[in-house]
Amino acid sequence: MQRRIMEHIIFCVIVWSIVFILIPFFRIKELAVVILVSIVWMIFVDNISTSLGYYSYHNLIIPVGTTSLFHLLALSGVGILMINWLKENSFTKLLAVFTVGLAFSILQGIYIGTGAFSYEKFDVVLSFIHSIAALSIFVWLSLSIVGEEKIYSGHKSRIRAIA
């Protein structure tokens, strides 16, 4: 396998390693629906965005629509990380959305550098705004489908200082 087509696999392994290091397994099982919400939402967002010519993914391994299965799996891990530490106050939601949006912009820059992604009608600013909108809806969907009580409660970390 060429190095050029492994970006999504590497991202997936890194994200899920972080998930399993930081979050107790029973908590991951509690929030398992977030994985499904994340995958379905990102298939929807990416298919519409690529069909409208906003951006495109390249060198896909196991394509699911217009993105890679491994990219979707990585984003589901990001979804678990993002939703796990939400609290009832709006600030944590805003902080999570903007932090992940910024991380996505950095990731897109890396993907562009490796040839795995390109902007078409979008640029970095429009893509950041697009990510903020998509992530805001993702948080709302997760809170609605999983339930606020389940998200806000529970043992959230293996590391006591983070919990």
Overview of this structure, please?
- This protein is mainly α.
- The protein has one domain.
- Helices cover 68% and strands 6% of the residues.
- The protein has helices spanning 7-22, 25-30, 32-51, 69-84, 90-114, 124-146, 148-152, and strands at 55-57, 63-64, 67-68, 117-119.
- A hairpin with a 2-residue loop joins β2 and β3.
- α1 (7-22) packs parallel to α4 (69-84) and α5 packs across α6 (124-146).
- The longest helix has 25 residues, at 90-114.
- It starts with 6 loop residues before the first helix and ends in an 11-residue tail after the last helix.
**Average pLDDT rating:** 92
The side-by-side strand order for the widest beta sheet comes to 1-4
**SSE arrangement, N to C:** HHHEEEHHEHH
- CA-atom Rg in angstroms: 16 Å
How would you briefly describe this protein structure?
The protein is mostly helical. 68% of the residues lie in helices and 6% in strands. The chain has one domain.
Fill in the keyword field for this structure.
163 residues; mainly alpha; 6% strand
Itemize the secondary structure elements and their pairings.
Layout: H1 7-22, H2 25-30, H3 32-51, E1 55-57, E2 63-64, E3 67-68, H4 69-84, H5 90-114, E4 117-119, H6 124-146, H7 148-152
Helix pairs in contact: 1-4, 3-4, 3-6, 5-6
